[in-house]
Amino acid sequence: MSTMCIESRQKFSLVKTSILQSVNAFREQQRKKLEENSDKLNLGDVTSINLSKVEGGVQTNVIPSEFVAYFDMRITPTDDFNTIEEMIKNWCKNAGKGVTYEFLQKGLCRKLTPTDTSDPWWNALTSVFKEENCKFQKEIFIGGTDARYCRGAGIPAIGFSPMINTPILLHDHNEYLNENVFLEGVRLYTKIIPRLANLEEFK
């Protein structure tokens, strides 16, 4: 996950058009990739970028001498980070002189935790799912969690949210979790934690 700001000291209208055209073209490319491979890919398998904030100017009838645009970019770990940054450099270069960028937050960890039968942790976790006849779906989570620090330190990490039959409303104004769904999740964890804590491979 990265938060980036692009700063310009050129005419606002010219730079805004150039940068936003580049961003929108990239977004459309990623949207098509997801749409055309919907049977194999989830949102976490593509890179997203959203304009989240713009600063500049002193009043509505004066063209600002400079402005800053902030973008929230979620880079999938299967993309090459250096290639993505080179693309951003070219966006700024093509927009003209005085256009620069910087990262306010820059995650560089691309390590993926194994999710197949070769991994004892995955086997332990999914063994509980099988016993409970619990259907599940693997995907790369698009948000930032503390698991990235574990993976960055070389420690495998798997996120699990037992939110059955619940719409995805992360950080929304009406995010909620039904009480029964919450309690069922607690029950599942009472089976998962002992299973993970008592792996034969690590005794």
Automatic annotation (TrEMBL):
InterPro entries (alphabetical): Aminoacylase-1_M20A (IPR052083), Bact_exopeptidase_dim_dom (IPR036264), Peptidase_M20_dimer (IPR011650)
Record-given protein name: Peptidase M20 dimerisation domain-containing protein
Signal peptide start-end: none
Transmembrane intervals: none
Lineage per the UniProt record: Eukaryota, Metazoa, Ecdysozoa, Nematoda, Chromadorea
Top-level taxon: Eukaryota
GO molecular function term, any single one: aminoacylase activity
Domain (Peptidase M20 dimerisation): residue spans on this chain: 39-97
Pfam families: M20_dimer
